[in-house]
# Entry
Amino acid sequence: MSESPGSRPADVGTAAPAFGERLLTLREVAAFLQLNERTIRRWIVTQRFPCVHLGTRLRFSQRNVLRWVSAREEGR
# Structure
């Protein structure tokens, strides 16, 4: 199965946000991880950083972000 350039697979290896879970903004995630927003955007494209696309806006589950970071610490 081939993907068109710029498309993303539906499953990025993370669970969907829990119902009722507050989703974080790009700015909040960048502040939480003490990184630049551009770094987070780059990770979304190149390293499948977990996010939810709501129209043109990005939102993030803190639980999925922590799982993603933890997996990188463990070298997975």
Observations:
- Residues 68 and 74 are 10 Å apart (CA to CA).
- The chain has three helices and three strands.
- The two ends are 24 Å apart (CA to CA).
- Residues 23-73 form one domain.
